[in-house]
Design brief:
alpha+beta; Creatine Kinase, Chain A, domain 2; seven-stranded antiparallel β-sheet; two-stranded antiparallel ribbon; about 10% strand; disordered N terminus; ATP binding; EgtA_Actinobacteria
């Protein structure tokens, strides 16, 4: 992709085969082709080139995942072949979005790029309505919730990428359960924003990461998993955290592109070449750095291998040429547009940055509290009150009533997720999941 428009298209569709992302480099050095053998320094340079593009703030992409439900039996899953047929029929959504399928059969709609969040929300409403109609024709629904509250994790997507990830996470007792949950039982709302010009990169990455705990607390809707109350506000965020700091922790924001490159080099390789020999006894999975400096019985690494490594790293803010904010639980239609609009407003409206930055400076490291307690945590509750008040007059008019509701909930330490978990406890996961899939 050689044009800005093409780069924006890639930015709004991270669910397409991730190794193929072609964000343009910010360096003048040529980006190596996929089959090019690569060494340590060139790999580091490549990752830094791909991390952040020189693109002005403004364009927005939104991704929304939901759980596919069989209405006659919510405890079962639609056959994956049937989901594939639906996705194929929806190759051209009316507002330009794309439909893709996740490991557990979750269905994702990714918007086309839009000049502002208001137009992105209008387009997503059209595209998601089209998806719901197609699923309904099969007797299936689409439940927007951060976790599957009823069914146990089960990988149904046969793609080799997901099979490799499943094998990798299952090989360690530390990540086995978290990996299966993350892949097959969670659903996210993602907001993709431009990084700005180079002199803005550090501030924008820092602001996005500092917003992370607040966004997790505000959006958390994943207390239930596989029929039981986990006791967590966002079991989805807990699952990501359980994959370990190298795989899913925030990156150092002082020099984000360089920090991203170091993260890629240090993390164990998930997508191991099929002809690679097992790692020597006692060493555990090989890091990308190990592979680049001493391949041993593995094939020589290529630029494509480096790109694939990036697709297996899941920090709350991922650098893909743009900023991919990944720390939001999926939410019902009543709420997710407002949360997406708030995320964009807090990031992109400079007039409110002084208030927002002061508020989130006190909660930047409250990841555990956000996932466990949500806005029940006093510091996160105070930050939410300040940030919501700052945004109320500048969010798009269409979401203002929902933002006002969120503001009232936050004042008492509640959020959409607390309303959802109350309903799950009262009526049970099967009833709630089936009902939510009709909305």
């Amino acid at each position: 992709m050689s044009t800005t428009a093409a780069r924006h298209s890639a930015a709004s569709h991270p669910s397409r085969p991730e190794g193929g992302t072609q964000a343009r480099p910010t360096s003048t050095k040529a980006v190596p082709g996929d089959s090019t053998p690569i060494g340590l320094e060139d790999a580091r340079e490549l990752v830094q080139q791909l991390a952040l593009d020189d693109l002005p703030v403004g364009t927005v992409g939104v991704e929304l995942e939901g759980h596919a439900i069989v209405w006659r039996d919510p405890s079962s899953r639609p056959p994956f072949e049937g989901l594939e047929e639906v996705a194929a029929r929806l190759a051209d959504l009316p507002a330009g979005g794309r439909t893709t399928l996740e490991p557990g059969g979750q269905v994702e709609v990714s918007s086309a790029p839009h000049p502002d969040i208001g137009s992105a929300l209008v387009a997503m409403a059209q595209d998601t309505a089209h998806l719901r109609a197609a699923l309904a024709g099969e007797g299936w629904g689409w439940a927007l919730l951060g976790s599957d509250p009823l069914r146990p994790p089960q990988r149904v997507n046969p793609a080799e990428r997901y099979a490799a990830m499943e094998r990798f996470f299952a090989s360690s007792g530390d990540t086995r359960d978290h990996g299966a949950t993350m892949m097959c039982s969670t659903a996210a709302l993602q907001v993709n924003l431009q990084p700005g010009h180079p002199d803005q990169w550090t501030d924008r990455v820092r602001r996005a990461q500092r917003l992370g705990p607040l966004l997790t607390a505000l959006s958390g809707s994943s207390a239930y998993l596989a029929g039981r109350d986990t006791g967590w506000h966002s079991a989805r965020q807990r699952a990501w955290t359980g994959l370990g700091e190298l795989r899913a922790g925030p990156i150092d924001d002082h020099d984000p592109a360089r920090a991203w490159a170091e993260r890629a080099l240090e993390a164990p390789v998930v997508l191991v070449p099929p002809e690679a020999a097992p790692a020597p006894d006692g060493r555990g999975p090989r890091s990308l750095r190990d592979w680049l400096t001493d391949p041993g019985e593995w094939p020589v690494a290529t630029a494509a291998d480096v790109r694939r490594q990036l697709t297996t790293l899941f920090p709350p803010v991922r650098l893909r040429g743009w900023l991919e904010l990944r720390c939001l639980d999926s939410l019902p239609d009543r709420w997710w547009p407002a949360v997406a609009a708030l995320t964009t407003t807090w990031m992109d409206v400079e007039a409110i940055h002084p208030d927002v930055d002061r508020a989130i400076a006190t909660t930047a490291d409250r990841w555990h509290a956000a996932a466990s307690d949500g806005l029940g945590d006093a510091s996160l509750r105070r930050a939410a009150a300040t940030c919501l008040e700052a945004a109320l007059s500048v969010v798009p008019e269409g979401v203002r009533p929902a933002v006002e509701e969120l503001t009232e909930l936050a004042r008492t330490g509640r959020s959409p997720g607390t309303l959802i978990v109350d309903d799950l406890r009262r009526r049970g996961p099967a009833v709630v999941l089936e009902e939510m899939s009709h909305v």
